[in-house]
Structures
1.
Amino acid sequence: GAVVSQHPSWVICKSGTSVKIECRSLDFQATTMFWYRQFPKQSLMLMATSNEGSKATYEQGVEKDKFLINHASLTLSTLTVTSAHPEDSSFYICSPQSPSYNEQFFGPGTRLTVL
Amino acid sequence: KQEVTQIPAALSVPEGENLVLNCSFTDSAIYNLQWFRQDPGKGLTSLLLIQSSQREQTSGRLNASLDKSSGRSTLYIAASQPGDSATYLCAVRGYNQAGTALIFGKGTTLSVSS
């Protein structure tokens, strides 16, 4: 399978700060990137879809001004949680899509804890 | 809107049992269906991917079937082992606002005792 990295793997921050999560597809070019979040004992919920060079499309109920997504290149996408609050504490997972096989691969996830 | 349901939510079995995990989805217009494994606090491991034109896929002790018309898939695990203990997630590639994306069920948490 494809190699996808996320950084950081975990982060603890104070309420009100912003946190940036990086996602890199290391062995293929991802024209489309998905971002998911997972609350404890819940499933993955799709937050947004981004295509390289375009603005992200957010799912209903996800605040685009709070969760800033930048798909700067075919191998790098970032998710910035702005003015984080305790309710934003979650497991965030990126998922680049392979252009060849219509298949999504997944990063190892970033656990965010907001105090 | 596509919804994915997994039954049961949790399952405990002794080692060696064969077991079936169920997944259903509301919109049969899917591109493919995928089963994943997730260990506690970890990311996802893809187990099997079934294209919409296929009926089943097999990998080792795992067999997944797909009945698109009825909106159902099953994951069959043969001769279960303690190392199979994990949460199993079913996901379908369906339409979202931006095109298509994987939509997940809530998962079945499996515990295999030795």
2.
Amino acid sequence: QVQLQESGPGLVRPSGTLSLTCGVSGDSISSSYWWSWVRQPPGKGLEWIGEIYHTDSSNYNPSLKSRVTMSIDKSKNQFSLKLSSVTAADTAVYYCARLQHSWFDPWGQGTLVTVSS
Amino acid sequence: QSVLTQPPSVSGAPGQRVTISCTGSSSNIGAGYDVQWYQQLPGTAPTLLIYGGNSDRPSGVPDRFSGSKSGTSASLAITGLQAEDEADYYCQSYDGSLSGSVFGTGTKVTVL
């Protein structure tokens, strides 16, 4: 059974960098899947942030591309998200998920990141 | 920045059938990309409900849930509505113009 678990600071200062990690168990980060991030502002819908493959190939949402960096750590079987120059609009629950063909499954439980001074 | 449009809410009595529409464009659903559906229970992460070109259901998802697609739109049908179906539902596809995944605006299903 594949499980994903997000971790990272729950509070980030405005103009700072949001950093999250997703630990993967039950599957290898080097398997034939892409590993993704999706976020959901409080009370709003889902927004795709981007995805990364174990070869370090990545795809990012054009609206966030200039601020997003994703990476993979094969030794720890985990992948990470960095979002720079954050504002209150980046406050959201951040989910990691495995991308199979064109669908996301499974998802992590999500972690709330609040941008506030 | 949702590219796929869904009705904000739908409701039905227990046992009834409800449908949720998902309207896209020629760069996503209309281009032939698969449409997926997710269920999000209050306070939890989304879970996959319908996936792939054949609108398959993951193991454990009741056959009361079914998906269909036509042109630039897709639909999720829930038959025999149950109280446990009260949740938010999202469609998702790939958009060739954005070169990435797009989600619907989300629909809240209420069981009367």
